[in-house]
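Session log. Operator J.P. requested a structure for one protein chain; no other inputs attached. Running the standard single-chain path with C-alpha cell output.
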Amino acid sequence: MNAIKFVATAIALVAAFLAGCGQSTSSAPSSASTVTQPTPPAKVQIDLSTPDKALKSYWAVKDSVRAVSVELISKFDSDMKPYRKQVNAVTSEAITNSFFVVDNVFETFSRDIIKVDVESESRAVIFVVIRNTTAIPTGVKPSDDEEKRRRDGERYKYVVERDKTDWKVSEIWEWSKYFPENDWKKTLPSDRTSYTPSYTHDGI
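Structure written below.
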C-alpha cells in the first residue's frame, strides 16, 4: 500500500474505532497531537531532457518521497501507542495487533528499462521490468508466488510526454493477467473522478 495513504487510512480507522467505543479522540495525550516536521527529501537531481532520463528522475523523486513516508509512519506508530491499551481492553490480542501493524520498512527495487518507443516529438512509451529487492525478514518463508514475483519482476509501461521543453510521466500501466486476461491495465492516473464512501472497513 502507498505509505502516505497507509498513514491516513490507519489514523482514520483507529480514530473511528475509538469513537465507536465512546472515546473522544480529543482526549488524546498532547504528545499524540504534536506534529513534527519530517526531514526534507534529499535534493534530487532532475533531468527532463529525454524520455528515459525523465523516467529515472521520476523514480528518484518517488524514492525520496517514500523515504519521508517511512519516517512519518514510524512517528505515527509511536504516537498511537497510548491507544493500544484502550483497544486491547475491548478486543482480543490478535485484533489489537491488526490495528497497530505498521510497515515502516523502506523497500528497495531494481528497475530495468527494456525498450523505449518514441512515437512522436512529444510522446514516448517506455517498457520496464521492476523487481522488489528488499531483504526478506528473518524467519519469513516466501510463498511460491512471492518467490516468482521477486525473481521475474513485474512489467510496466510509462507514457512520457513533452510539455513545452520538458518530458514528464503522464500515465503508468501495469501488465496484468487478471484484468480480465493478459493485457495492460492503467494504474495512474485513475479514470475515476469522484469517490462515494461505501465501505465498512472490516466491521468498524
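Operator note: Residues 26 and 147 are 45 Å apart (CA to CA).
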